[in-house]
Every structure is written in structure tokens, then in C-alpha cells.
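tool_call: predict_structure(chain=1)
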Amino acid sequence: MNATVLIVDDDPVQRRLAEAALTRDGMAVAACGDGTAALDHLAERRDGVSAMVLDLVMPGMDGIAVLEALRQRGDQVPVIVQTAKGSMDVAISAMRAGAFDFLVKPVAPAKLAKAVRDAVKVAESGQRRATPETFRKRAASRRQGVDLIGNGPEMTRVKRLIAKASASDIPVLIEGESGTGKELVARAIAGRGARATKPLVIVNCGAIPDNLVESILFGHEKGAFTGATEKHTGKFVEADGGTLFLDEIGELPNAAQVKLLRAIQDGHVEPVGARGGRTVDVRLVSATNRDLIAAVQTGRFREDLYYRLNVFPILTPSLRSRTGDLPELVDHLVERQARKAGLTGVPKVTDAAMEVLGAYDWPGNVRQLENELFRALVLSETGVLDAPDFAHIAAQLDGSRRPIAPMPALDRPLAPAADMPFPPAAPDGVPEPPPLRERPAADRGHCVPLLGADDHARPLAAIEADAISHAVSHYDGQMSEIARRLGIGRSTLYRKLREYGIVGGRN
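tool_result:
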């Protein structure tokens, strides 16, 4: 496409990413770091810009102000707005100000390029720009089209429950292991029914420090506590009229559980430091990978809150319980990862590779599968994903799982052993070590010494730091799993990672 695109974003990293995506698609690109510079650029090159990619949140002149200025000047350049905040109200405001389309960051390169191409085509054809109402319907349709892949009995049941839950405003509790798609289920519920065009606000309760949970959820007044330099509305108010999704609900501290219970019962929220509150109309969807019944029995979670949340339960199945969906999932994830990576074609997954993937039990579920496929895509040099691309998965299989066909000989070297989470297979004639889960703990390199070099007991903090560091490495940085195995909340885990200077964790 012979088009010139103006990228406007105050974040240089985002500008470079957008520039790379559009340049790879054959477009010429210019970039500005703020709204004023963008307007000046357009004034100098009025006929030289085919489309604009505009960040909504910028210091000084923000995206809405740029759109208003373009409209007042009569500039007809189509604008695709980008925002890290997926609020429907924000998107509708942008449309009313004249935007052609909106995208929520992070944006896949192929998706950004397609949006720009569509905008340029519509502008060149002279078609009328979409109305805000059309835009609402388009956005709601997108939200409904989440990636709930699979037509086996387990996923068919989940989809049926989603349809039922969407028809009412009753609270929904989504339970399931980490990586099973609980957020996708929440998005599917929010994208249907009477609230489909209203805000969907997502809060990860496990990622919020304990002392800020109430402020984040219910808001605070200016001066309510040290550091509260301005008023904050809170997530309940942001979601008013729409859906509030509370992920990792089991991590909420007790004080926040009390206020949440009142908000559910009365529809009333009171910001920290306020003398009064306000009524909100919010449909609540929550999710957890914990056993909340056990948490209730141990006193970590309020029983009355549990029954308020668990009005309509949905269980997301583990990947090992729906292996029949694996081929469709693999095809979908490979296509999506290839598109994100900007590949021109979609690599083929061989039958031998599918045998390896199908024999593994996927403790990290779909999230782990997607990570492994992405790793294989990045390392592949042939455009085909074969069994050797998943050698470290095959190395973890033992006799308790289905047998798999022998892997063909490698026709290219694998990545250096230091880059792989598991060692390569032993040479012929050398006995293989037992599978990782069958080895004694001391053989796994995960022994935390209790005594120091001076033969005296080590400080508890040092032992704890070693234990957490080993857990981060052992569970590949999966924070939810690490916190669950260590028996602590995610907010506590994040705090300890900062205290001990441990790196390597990821969401």
C-alpha cells in the first residue's frame, strides 16, 4: 500500500513498535511525540498524510484535543486512536470527536496494519465515517468474539453457562487452574447482554499491595492518606453501568472483603476518607485459582462473601481434561502468534509434534501451551514446527503418559543448553536420569541450606530469599503459581521480590 502514516505517541517505545509494524506492511511512516507537533506536521504536509495513529493519553495536548483541533480545521485525515484503557466511554468519546477506529494496547502488528489499511481505503472511497452507535455495536461484537476455542463437552458446557450468565446480572464466580482462560470467560460474559456496550473494568486483586486495595476498588479523597495528592474514583465507579471483573479474588485482605460485601449487598461504595458514598450499578464477575471453600474453613475468606460471589459458578476446565480440543487450540495459537510476530505465513505443525504436545499434561494449561508454541516459532528456522522443536517437553514425559512416536533425528542444532529449561537427552549408552518430578529434592538443585559457611544457622530472611528465588526459577516466573505453592498472596510475593531484589517473575 502506497500510504504515509503519521504516528503520534509520547512513548518512544510505542512509536518504534508501531513504525516497525507499518513499515513492514509497506507503508511510509512519520512520527511525532506530542499533539502540537502532530498538528504542525499536518499543517505543513496537508496532502502528504494518508492516516494517523494517535495515542489518547499524552501530556499537554491529549488525543481528544487533537481530534477536536482536526475537526475545527476541517482536516479529513482518518485517525485510529490507541489507548491502554479499554473503557467503552473513552472510545465513544474519541469516536464523537472524529476518530475512525480504536485499538486497545498492546496491539498486534498485523491488527494495527489492517486497521490503518481499512481507514485509508474508506477515506479514499469517500464513504461516510461510522457513527458512534455503529461504533458501539462494532466494539461490542469484538468483545463477544473472544478466543474460546474448543467444541468438546467441557468447553460446550462453559459456553452454555456463559450464555445463561449473560442473560442476567447475578454475580458470577469463575474457578479454575491458572492458565485456563478465566479472563476470557469474563470478557465473553461482559460482551453479551444488556451491558455489552458498557465499561468492562478488570482488576487483578493479587497484584495490588494490601494497603492500596480499598483505594483502588472504592476510591479515596484527596488527603485521605499519605501520598493521596488528588481524588481517585475507584474501579467500582469506573465500572458503573457495566461489568467489574475481580481476578484472583481470593487474595483480597479481610478489610477489603468487608467493604466488598457491603458493595454487593447495597450497591453502595464509600471512598477512603469520604464522609459519604455513592450508589453504583455494577455487575460483578470474579475469578480464582484457589480453593475458596478451604480458605473459608481456615478463616482466610469470609463465608458470607463467598456465598454472595458464588451465585452462578463456572469452572474452566484444565487443558489435560480436554485433549480433544488440542489440535484446534494449537492451530489457533500458532496462527495468532505468527500474526503477532509479523510472519508472512503460518508454520505447519507436524503430526510428530502433535504427538509430543498431546502426550504432555500441561500443568500451566493454555497459557503454558501458548508460551511453548511461541518459543518454538521464534527458534524455528524451517517454517515447520516438528517434534525436535519441543524436545524439552518430550524430555519431561514419563511412562505414566501415553507413549509417543520416536522423534526424528535433528537436522539442525538446538539452542544452547544454557538457554533451555531442561538438559538435552543423554548420549547413547548413558542412562537417563529419572524424570524431574521423581528425583529426590536434593538432586534437583533446589536444596536451601540452613547453615552458612561458618557452620552457624543462616538468618531466616536469607533462607526465605533463597526459597523464593528457587520457586521463581522452578515455576518459570508464573507469579500466581509461585504464590499458591508458597502459601502467600501475590501482593506479599511482589513485596518480598522487591525486598530481596529477586528478578525473573512475570504475570
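agent: The chain has four domains: 4-142, 154-317, 320-434, 443-500. Proceeding to next step.
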